[in-house]
Design a protein that fits this description.
Elements lengths: L1 E6 L2 E6 L8 E6 L7 E5 L2 E6 L3 E5 L7 E2 L8 E7 L5 E6 L2 E5 L7 E2 L1 H4 L16 E7 L7 E6 L2 E5 L7 E2 L8 E6 L7 E5 L2 E5 L7 E2 L8 E9 L9 E8 L16 E5 L7 E2 L11 E6 L6 E6 L4 E5 L4 E6 L5 E6 L1
Antiparallel strand pairs: 1-2, 1-28, 2-3, 4-5, 5-6, 6-7, 8-9, 9-10, 10-11, 12-13, 13-14, 14-15, 16-17, 17-18, 18-19, 20-21, 21-22, 22-23, 24-25, 25-26, 26-27
Length: 331
């Protein structure tokens, strides 16, 4: 297995085989720069580096080339690939751009940009409101969602041409958006005010029942077909903390980080407490192994990368001291 991780101090590609005590870093890139999002399509991996744009590799991270320059004054924050293969980048300040040619050029989704004139988006901590999450509905290729931190959630039903706010009942500090892979009408939002669920494509939101409905949520992962869940249910993993990153202290050591698991599509939640995840450092990234939906990858604010088998309860630390992990992708 080869795993790319983007951190606050560059990107690392790690080779790890089951049974090895730890992973081996095979290549590095963007040292000294944050790498905040990774995605892939047709053998090409894309990386969002806020201070230099979008970059891509076709040799599993050995070499990188810049994609087309983004418009002046915007920084790449999140990447996603549509069901049709288009590449989307969400930026700071909040904007959405599409590429239909593997990053050789960008098209502004003007309908999303027009929301700035009608919506109330907020700056915080010296940062402008930005697109923190993009999610596609695998049940309807025309439908996608975007989450703005701080600003709320937005839905397009026409491939991103027009947009509407879907914020009734939702806390507007969006950190992650996930469409249930088994049910396109069910949408989850990890926010600074807890985990929320909508059962009608965002028209109405409610805090998730139980403890996770009020905690500061950092990241969320949904997996269909996992042996750790019932055959008809979606497995969900959630990271929470005591508050925003500014309160976590050095390497997240005082962040009060916890991890939670639901094996019934979010109906109930229990703490996920293997020894490898204890210590209170917040989880800042999740990743899935497409070859084995019973296993997950977890990145922390303290620079640790962990591999976990949710069926066997077996965890392995692959990397530590890498800088806060922002994004994970099996390459």
């Amino acid at each position: 297995m080869r795993i790319a991780i983007g951190t606050d101090d560059g990107l690392r590609v790690i080779r790890w085989l089951a049974g090895e005590r730890s992973g081996t870093v095979t290549s590095r890139a963007f040292d000294g720069h944050s790498v905040v999002s990774l995605t892939s399509h047709s053998g090409v991996v894309y990386a969002a580096v806020p201070d230099s744009g979008v970059h891509k590799t076709s040799d599993r991270g050995a070499t990188w080339q810049p994609a087309a320059a983004l418009p002046s004054g915007v920084h790449a924050e999140t990447l996603a690939v549509s069901p049709s293969g288009d590449l989307l980048v969400g930026t700071e300040p909040a904007q959405l751009l599409r590429s239909t040619d593997a990053g050789a050029s960008w098209i502004d989704l003007a309908g999303f940009g027009a929301l700035r004139e009608t919506e109330t988006w907020s700056e915080y901590g010296g940062r402008a409101a930005h697109v923190e999450a993009v999610a596609f509905d695998r049940h309807d290729a025309a439908r996608l969602y975007a989450g703005v931190e701080i600003g709320g959630a937005y839905r397009s039903d026409d491939h991103g041409q027009t947009w509407n706010g879907v914020n009734d009942g939702l806390y507007d500090d969006i950190h992650d958006l996930v469409v249930d892979p088994r049910d396109g009408s069910r949408l989850f939002a990890a926010t600074g005010g807890g985990l929320y669920v909508s059962r009608d494509r965002g028209a109405d939101w409610r805090p998730m029942a139980g403890p996770v409905g009020s905690l500061y949520a950092t990241r969320l992962l949904a997996i269909a077909g996992s042996r750790a869940a019932a055959p008809s249910q979606t497995l969900l993993l959630l990271g929470t903390a005591d508050g925003p990153p500014s309160t976590w202290g050095r390497a997240g050591q005082k962040g009060g980080g916890k991890s939670w698991i639901s094996s019934d599509s979010g109906s109930t939640w229990t703490p996920l407490e293997p020894t490898a995840l204890k210590g209170g450092t917040p989880i800042t990234a999740f990743g899935a192994d497409p070859a084995d939906p019973a296993t997950v990858l977890v990145g922390t604010a303290g620079g640790r990368l962990l591999h976990g088998n949710l069926v066997e309860g077996r965890w392995q630390q692959l990397v530590y001291g890498a800088g806060a992990v922002r994004t994970i992708l099996v390459v």
